Amino acid sequence: MADEGLRPIIVKRIKKGGGGHHGGAWKIAYADFVTAMMAFFLLMWLLGSTSKGDLQGIADYFANPLKVAMAGGSGSGDATSVIQGGGKDLTRIDGQQKKGEDDNATKKFNLKAAEEELARAEARRLRALKERIELAIATVPSLQQYKNQLLLDITTEGLRIQIVDEKNRPMFALARAELQPYTKLILHEIAKTLNDIPNKISLSGHTDATPYASGERSYSNWELSSDRANASRRELIAGGMQEDKMLRVVGLSSAVLFDKENPFNPINRRISIIVMNKKTEESIEKENQTVDVSDEASVQKAVEQGAQIGPVAPPSGTPNPHAPALAVAAEAAAAASSAQGVTAQTPR
């Protein structure tokens, strides 16, 4: 009994960790969850801010990373791609491929819009030329007294400059193609401005309806208007206009009257200078084109392009089937001319 009282008493104490009721494992799980959420939101942000081409490049990279790393291209080798690759495209001589939006897409041009813009630009040039000539008429003392004889307007053919006669101030000598000194002065001033634009020039001469004593059978208003137009052409060139700018010189006699109510009005005697627009130039240049009327498609195309439609010339040595009808028409016209009385007057 005495030995039992001296036996030592041993007390065992178990030390528990400071992790609370469930321990510290939840912190590790929570950290993993936050990391996963951060990675997820980062992925969503990248998908939302990356272009379609870059996304395709990323997909190609993960689909076959070895090929992209060695050959480059297909998005990963592009400098704008998220994942950079290296090397040159083995299928090209130089450069890299880019799979995605094509920055070098084929450009399409609106031809009709371009033609309209060219027409507007040409109209602006013609208006500027008109204003310049009007300014010269108003400021040059030698031209101010002739301002009533200079008529400028914009027509469907281009800028028209008309030099007309006045009752006591004709441009030419009586019934001749000899220019008066002041007419030469006017033409010289106009010639100085015509080289400023590339447009071609058309020049026509006009007379009044007063006929020659010999009528139309010898020298007539047709020859007079033509001679006056050519005299004006020579004077424009003498004034400094380039020779190759002249595209057409015609004499129209009294066929196109300025004052249709009074055919004998001196204002009908005039020289008309037209600075032609591009459309008028092309129509003149195509006047000599003909097509075979047997080909309907060619006729339609020629009409659209403004070509002249006429019958096909017969082969050499083949009689013209229309010759008899033409001969009869010519005889009838000659008989009518001889039967008509002509007043013997002299045009100015």
Characteristic key phrases:
5-stranded mixed beta sheet; 348 residues; 60s Ribosomal Protein L30, Chain: A; alpha+beta; 11 helices
The beta-strand count equals 5
CATH fold assignment of the domain at 113-276: 60s Ribosomal Protein L30, Chain: A
CA-atom Rg in angstroms = 46 Å
Unreliable runs, pLDDT <50, ≥5 residues? 74-83, 310-318, 321-330, 332-344
Strand percentage lies at 5-15%
Task: Look at the helices and sheets and give the structural class.
Answer: alpha+beta
Q: Architecture of the domain at 113-276, according to CATH?
A: 2-Layer Sandwich
CATH superfamily of the domain at 113-276: OmpA-like domain
How many H/I helical runs?
11
Q: Give the H and E element order.
A: HHHHHHEEHEHEEHHH
Quick recap of the structure?
By secondary structure, the protein is α+β, with helices and mostly antiparallel strands. The protein is built from 11 helices and 5 strands. Belongs to the MotB family.
